[in-house]
């Protein structure tokens, strides 16, 4: 296995060989060893590549590249991660169908057959409290139905998508824009560990690769390629999430968008997608209805039985009449203390006391500027 894997890694290290050409050569010649053993003429004529690349495929790799590959194989042997190639039965079947699948995937955690029922959830790194809360709820509902949630481990909406799936005891996959041995952003180390326990972390970049900005559009095609469809939450009109949506369309995947306040710049991306024909999403059933015909009968039957019976949420703490009255005045959008005081007949100290009680019960939270908002949609 190690010697076979070495051939895949050596081929990947050849300058100028991209995923589309790599995949085509594997289909034509069968294995990296066969490709490296073929003469220049065969590679040019049968592989449809330029002579310069054909000659590069036959040259020995620089010693630096060979040393790096040796370190990667040692890391695999040590169990730090595992590597899948296009020839591996465990390679995600849906990802294999795109025109430019990663020839090699570095992975931690565990991939399962059920991950073929995957939905990508992506959005802004600067997602609002409302956007993150809705994303967390939607992802949790979909994970509870049996879908694997795929995202990019980024700040904001991506993190909320992973957290929602994890909270529902569901599966989630994170696709990195850096090497598998790096954590980006660095504060998501604990989140990554939880994902590895309930899913997997994947990268197409060799060990040690730093998170360059140009890696992330490339990473996005893997997120959509793993999935039945892509759900875009908050995103500006120039967001990388729209690149993911475009790639999803090119890969014949479904595209969904979550609408929002028209005055918020973070809703311009989803609204643009909706104008272009994306399915508007208000809840998990909007997603299920759209993709139900694409699913195999057994999973379709499972979903039809589950509709209206999502994983029950923990029951909310019982509230007294005054608590309930004030709680009803608070939403996912911030409301100021002054506004809450003006809406009732209680003194400021009484309102503060009730707010403290609601905070202790985990129903609301205070944010800077003496403002309050709910912590959950339900």
Written overview of the protein:
With 378 residues, the protein is α/β, with parallel strands linked by helices. The chain has three domains: 2-80, Orthogonal Bundle (DNA polymerase, domain 1); 113-306, Rossmann fold, CATH 3.40.50.450; 321-374, Winged helix-like DNA-binding domain superfamily/Winged helix DNA-binding domain (Arc Repressor Mutant, subunit A), CATH 1.10.10. Helix content is 46%, strand content 13%. The chain has helices at 2-12, 19-29, 32-37, 40-47, 51-58, 63-77, 93-96, 129-144, 157-167, 189-198, 215-225, 240-250, 268-275, 284-291, 297-306, 321-327, 337-342, 348-360, and strands spanning 82-85, 104-109, 118-122, 148-151, 172-175, 199-203, 229-232, 254-257, 279-280, 335-336, 364-367, 371-374. Strands 1-2-6-5-4-3-7-8-9 form a nine-stranded mixed β-sheet, sandwiched between helices. The protein starts with a helix and ends with a strand. The relative contact order is 0.09.
